Amino acid sequence: MTKKPSLPLVALEIRSKLVNATGLDASQVIIGPPHEAARQQEKAPDKDYLCVFFYNTGYSGFPADAASNDPLYMSAFCLITALGGRPSSGTPTPGESELNLIGAVLEYFHRNPVLKMERDGVKLHIQIVPAQLSLDDINHLWATQNNTPSRLSIAYEFVWLPVPLAVRTDGEIQRVAKVELNVEAFKLESELEGEP
Question: Does the global pTM surpass 0.90?
């Protein structure tokens, strides 16, 4: 049986959480690069959108006793971008909408720093860590977005993401249950020779 990839499931779970946090519907939370979200917004310019863009992955850590059939634990780096719409009434402005959306995202992840989910009997607890991007990092990311103007964004690192979606197997590995250390005093032979 093929194990399910965990990254798309986590992305969908993040979308679900952001829908609840912001009041947007699922079609307004785009998983993909910001230029795709901007293209989607062109079809409905009065609507607000959020973009969930995974721009990098890396290793989270290596358990010392991991085997080849255990999952690999990864970090996923994500840029969440707000795209404020232009309602016909003119209020709120796109800038105000973007501030409201990013504020809702910040508050939600501050109050819920662990993403808990269960799929096919596998329980995941993924840590959500704010990531500070430098201006250089931001410029590099937006330079790849097909001339899409940069928008207000926040970055997060999602840590301890198992790939594939699985739990560690104990198999036949013997775990250490207890370690004992005994210390005994003794005398050297040279010391014993001088004694009566």
Answer: no
Q: What is the mean pLDDT of residues 67-91?
A: 87
Q: For residue 63, give the DSSP letter.
A: -
Read off the pLDDT of residues 101-139 as tens digits, 9 standing for 90 and up: 999 999 999 999 999 988 878 788 899 999 999 999 999
Supply the DSSP symbol for 97. Answer: H
The torsion of the CA quartet 25, 41, 14, 106, rounded to 10 degrees, works out to -100
Instruction: Tell whether the model's pLDDT for residue 152 goes beyond 90.
Output: yes
Position 1 scores a pLDDT of 44
Cα–Cα distance for residue pair 43/125, rounded to 1 Å: 37
Please measure the distance between the N-terminal and C-terminal CA atoms of the chain and give it in whole angstroms: 77
Residue 120 lies in a domain: yes
Residue 129: which region, alpha, beta or left (left: phi > 0; alpha: psi -120 to 50)? Answer: beta
Rounded Cα distance, 16 and 13, in Å: 5
Assigned domain for 18 exists: yes
- Domain ranges, residue 57: 6-193
CA distance 81 to 105: 10
CATH code of residue 66: 3.30.2000.30
Residue 1 located in a structural domain: no
Give the chain's domain count.
Answer: 1
In a domain, 188, yes or no: yes
Q: Within a 10 A sphere around the Cβ of 80, how many other Cβ atoms?
A: 22
Map tokens 């309602």 to a residue.
87
